[in-house]
Amino acid sequence: MKRLSASLMVLLLIATTAVKATSPENKLQILNASQVARLDVSGKWSGKRNQYSLDKKSFIESFQYEFDLKQEGDIIAGTSTIISSNGEYADMKLEGVLIGNKLHFAEKEVKSAIRPDGKVWCFKSGELFFAKDGDNLKLVGATPSYMEVYNYPCSGGETDLIKVDNSSNLQVLINAGTTSAGIESRITVNVFPNPFIQSAAIYYNLDTDAKVSAQVYDISGKMVSNLFEGNQKAGSYNLSFDAKNAGSMSGIFIIKLVVNGEVFSRQLVQMR
To answer: What is the H or E stretch that residue 221 is in?
Structure first.
């Protein structure tokens, strides 16, 4: 990996006031995969992105954050806009893919921006959950951020967006009822190291015998590696992913694990 210059290691617009970090999605009804499959994701989303402190125990700044998305099947394209309280901003191209009940996305190009001297706008990515908040449809979750050139980690943050025109999704939300689908699952997928340089290990546990498939996709939705398909006994497992064999230049990957038809996913980031 190329050596990072000191000027590029400046984190995204560090501010001075800290507030306690929370997880806004804990109070919401998280939609399940079948509900998400019926949503119309296209259109404008507006809300906030709160930036972590370096120790990720507090927020140090809140930004206005917006998506303008276009959906074709499970593939998402569009733009994001982030605006600071001082008026600095960045318009960025983004791409993503719907997997299970999550939107996996990554910003990939700065279209236009105003930024202070010596600072950079980090590219944000993440796996956002779709959530019901009354009649509103939301996207919520952690959004790690990375340097424009090397995918070196910035401080990251959390995103909370509301779909501006939600009329096409009201029936889905009405039918969703009031019982939360929950964020935590009985099966947890972990990746180490993450970010990684060339290869990463994917860990998961099965609480019962199951039919399992594990594939890796790039952020455009293209499958780049088929890691496993078959039956596995209850227990702990790990799989290895080597990015040099993936044939993708995105640097952002997603492990999709399907266990007895239920979908789990986790995002992987390659540093360069």
So the answer is: none
